[in-house]
Amino acid sequence: MPTPIYYHFKQRFNVPARKSFEWCTTYTPGDPALMGAKDVSRRIEHITDQTVILTDTFNIGADNQIEKQKLVQIYPDILFWTSTHISGSAKHSQFIYQISAEADNISNLYFRGLFLDYGDKKISESDTAKLVEKTCKEDARTWELLAKAMEQDIC
Fold first, then answer.
1. What is the CATH number of the domain that holds 9?
2. Terminus of the chain with fewer CB atoms < 10 Å: N or C?
3. Count of domains for the chain
4. Are 45 and 29 in contact (CB under 8 A)?
5. Is the pLDDT assigned to residue 26 strictly greater than 80?
């Protein structure tokens, strides 16, 4: 049975809420590079205007690849979207994103994640707490990088 890792954080954007939402939910093949990922290719399949499947392929050595698929459901009227892993090592993990306005040109991302760790053994509460902290820090750092890229693109 996987170990559930629940975590959350807030990221500020110096961009209006609607523009930050549109930037976050407009997917391109180059997105993994913005998040610091190397040797990754992305395929984007639009099921509907608001439903997308992202397939990321990670090249991890000679003739060795890992593929991860995510189902993204977008709710533009409430500046909200979900991303659910449907394959890969984080299968069934789900991430929830909500953008809200703080001021005319400032918005915030409220992120809530459920990462399912499929490690071989059950881990202790203290090790789970360490994993929660590590995972939260890594994802928050990624969103700091994305905030800078967004501000450069929009401003």
1. 3.30.530.20
2. N
3. 1
4. no
5. yes
